[in-house]
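FORM 7B: Structural annotation worksheet

SECTION A. Query
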Amino acid sequence: MKKKHKHKRGGIGKEFPHTDQLNIILAIAFLLIWFLDTFIFQFSIWLTIFIPLLIRIIIFASLLILSFVLGNSSHKVLFGGNNEATSLIKKGVFARVRHPLYLSMLLVYLAFALISMSLICIIFWILMSILYDRFASYEEKDLEKIFGEEYTEYKKRVGKWFPKLFSSKI
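SECTION B. Predicted structure
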C-alpha cells in the first residue's frame, strides 16, 4: 500500500519539520540583529564607507522587487486553483527554479543585509542560506519518493536556486 503524503497546505509532499516556526524565529532573529547592528551598536557596518548609499538603495530595491515577483508568482502557481493536488508543479516560476518561495525569503534578508552592509547580518544570511538549503533538500527527498523519475528529470532541467541558462523546456 502506497503511503500518501499530505502537505499541510493541501498539496502533497512533506515540509521540513516546524518550517513555519523556524521561519518566524529566523525572521525575528535576523531583524533584531540587523536593527541592533545597523542603528544601535554599529559593530560591523564599516563597509558603508566604501559603497555609496544610492548604490545600496538600488540593490535593496532591486532585490525586494525580485523577491516580490518570485513570491507572488509562486503563490499564484501554487494557490491559483488550477493545480491538481497530486501532480508535480513544473510551470510558471517553477519552470525556472525549484524553490522560489525560499529564494524569495532569502532575497529579502539579503536586501536588508546589503542596505546596511552589516557583516554580522551577511554572515547570518549565509547561515540562513545553508539552513534553507537543508529545508529544500529534505523536501526534495520526499518529492523524489513520490514522483520518482519525473522529479529526477525535473531536477536535471531546473536549478535549485538559480535558473539553468542552457536547460531544455519541460
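SECTION C. Observations
The CA atoms of residues 36 and 42 lie 7 Å apart. DSSP finds five helices and no strands in the chain.

SECTION D. Sign-off
Analyst initials: ____
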